[in-house]
Automatic annotation (TrEMBL):
Belongs to the binding-protein-dependent transport system permease family. FecCD subfamily. Keywords: Cell membrane, Membrane, Transmembrane, Transmembrane helix, Transport. One of its GO terms (molecular function) is transmembrane transporter activity. InterPro entries: ABC_BtuC-like, ABC_transptr_permease_BtuC. It comes from the Bacteria. GO terms for biological process: siderophore-iron import into cell. One of its GO terms (cellular component) is plasma membrane. The chain crosses the membrane at residues 21-43, 76-93, 105-126, 132-151, 163-183, 208-226, 247-272, 292-311, 323-340. It is found in: Cell membrane. It is a multi-pass membrane protein. This is Iron complex transport system permease protein.
Amino acid sequence: MRPDAATARSVPAPIGRLRRLRALWLLLVAAALLVLVALSVAIGTRDVGLSDIASALGGKVETIGEAAVAMRIPRTVLALLAGAALGLAGAIMQGVTRNPLADPGILGVNMGASLAVVVGVAWFHIETAHAYIVTAILGAGAAAIFVYVIGSLGRGGATPLKLALAGAATSIAFSSLVIAIVLPRADIAGGVRAWQIGGVGGATFERIFPVLPFLAAGFVVSLLSARKLNALALGDELAAGLGEHVATTRAVAAFGAILLCGATTAVCGPIGFLGLVVPHLARLLTGSDHRWLLPFSALGGACLLIAADIVGRIVARPAELDVGIVTALVGAPVFIWIVRHQRVRDL
């Protein structure tokens, strides 16, 4: 065999091994998710037996143990959906802005959705699930546009540092506005404060069903943006030279992330740092190819939020810690590590 022919045949081998390795990691993460789902159903503030779990899965709620398991099932489903949505949204935002610090919480998107919901409850008396969801999505979109415009001002346009600073300032300002609106309203203060922490406790399928179409649309739009985000990672000029409409690509991908963030915030409240941590962990396994990064981020986000919910149930028995507190405890050190080391630059 000629040397050039042997070389040509050997070139695809590393690519094939990389794909197999990524597929293996994807299967392992999916398996870990299944294990966490089972643990989430089995573990809580009350100990239950296998018979209680089997009966509850069959629809029985005759004993206290069966009732406890029956309450954990929708809670687990909501944690899975919300974690996948926030993990995927974080990866999209980091790809759109080419900013390793991008996150729905840090960029002010979650707090924009929160402010919109609080204004809707306090001033317009919204009550239905669809009103909550639509209001949160509109608030998330308005916050994203506001932060991008502010971060684009001045020399150099929307740099990663300016976007992060604009998002942090916007989050603080919106949080202060939420407090200012809620303080004089004793009739809504308790519910809003509990919701503002961010959690999946008290989930029911009646709360989950209205948000499913919005999450499905967000997942589809986001996952279909993978190839275009790979082009954006090369830089705006090169992406435009390859035939991509840079502004349209950014807008469509950001719309998918806004749908996911707004819908999740409407149901769970603002849950921070998950969209920051998960994409970085996913890159360690799969690299920067968004065709793999986005599914990994969705599965990883679901795993992390379910794990955080399990930890929150057992560390303070018989009370519970909401997942928003647990993810903040996990995410804050990771945020500091990213800022100090800046090792993830290949966005």
